[in-house]
Amino acid sequence: MDYMPDDNSRYKDVDYWDERYKTEQCYDWLGGFSKFQHLLEEHVKKEDSILILGCGNSSMSGDMYSAGYHSITNIDYSSVCISTMTARYSDCPGMTWHQMDVRQLCFPAASFDVILEKATLDAIMVEEKSPWDVSPQTACFVHQALTEISRCLKPGGRFVSVTFAQPFFRKRLYARTEYNWSIKQYSYGEGFQYFVYVMTKGEQLSPEDAALEKKLLEKNQLEDTKSTPTRIATTQNEDNEDFLSNIDL
Predict the structure, then answer these.
(1) Which branch of life, at top level (predicted)?
(2) DSSP string over 137-195
(3) CA nearest 73: which of 152, 12, 150?
(4) Where are the domains of the chain?
(5) pTM higher than the cut 0.85
(6) Which of 201, 159, 197, 198 shows the shortest CA–CA distance to 177?
(7) How far is 165 from 186, CA to CA, in rounded Å?
(8) What is the C-alpha to C-alpha distance for residues 21 and 83, in angstroms, rounded to an integer?
(9) Tell me: the pLDDT tens digits for 19-73?
């Protein structure tokens, strides 16, 4: 069955996902867990409490559970997804599923050792047409999500972001002092490269990332003086996976 929508904007519509999850059994964006497991094991301990954002019907949570990660909380904004996945993994103690918006996480501050997302933020930005600019509306959405992620991380906790977005563009979203984290980057894949960013709560930005934040702040202030709407730079590269291959650049 073809699950590709007629318009990319549908990827931000919960009704689209509810309908899709009624028939689609499983789909793993950016490859399965085994593709980046070696990187994850460097930053995530088996005993860590883990929150997975936008879990979808991916096998990643189940694969992680089989690999020894037994404290996993999953969220998605599709009720159909959460119902299906709850039933599918009902025999996995310590694995829970909740319908939730990434911009309003219903957890106390400092709840998790690790928060993980794989292509969830990419989906949020799917309507962006330019490889250089994110609209103010989408930038606000991403900022709200990142603020909540930072709030829910324990001191020393890690936010792990798996994406197709190159460092030159994606770090512009992550390098903000207010999130109170450092940034490290890794990559995996043969031919087409995917990227893994690890943000550690309580560590300072590197001089390079701090300089990037300052440069972007000065750019935005200059645009404000010219009465130009602020836009935050990012990218969306072509990919062979579903919506990623259909972004009109």
Answers:
(1) Eukaryota
(2) HHHHHHHHHHHHHHHHEEEEEEEEEEES--HHHHHHHH--GGG-EEEEEEEE-SSS-EE
(3) 152
(4) 8-221
(5) no
(6) 201
(7) 12
(8) 10
(9) 776 776 666 767 789 999 999 999 999 999 999 999 989 999 999 999 999 999 9
Closest of 103, 54, 98 to residue 79, by C-alpha:
98
The two structure tokens encoding residue 161: 């972001």
Amino acid at 248: D
* Structure token digits, residue 243: 């919506």
pLDDT digits (tens, 9 = 90+) for 73-97: 999 989 999 999 999 999 999 999 9
Alpha-carbon separation of residue 249 from 229, 236, 237 (angstroms): 21, 8, 8
For residue 94, the tally of other CB atoms under 10 A from its CB is 12
Residue type, 119: A
Per DSSP (E only), the strands in 21-64 are 50-53
Closest CA to 239 of 196, 197, 194: 194
Amino acid at 133: D
> 8-221: what fold?
Rossmann fold (3.40.50)
CA distance 65 to 167: 29
Q: What is the CA radius of gyration of the chain?
A: 18
Token pair recorded at residue 63: 């694969």
What are the start-end ranges of the H helices in the chain?
Answer: 14-21, 37-40, 60-66, 79-88, 120-124, 136-152, 167-174, 207-225
- Residue whose pair of structure tokens reads 């694995």 in the numeric block: 95
The structure tokens listed for 10 are 């549908």
Secondary structure element (H or E) that encloses residue 73, with its range: strand 72-76
Q: Which of 140, 211, 218, 222 is nearest to 177 (CA)?
A: 211
**Count, residues in the chain:** 249
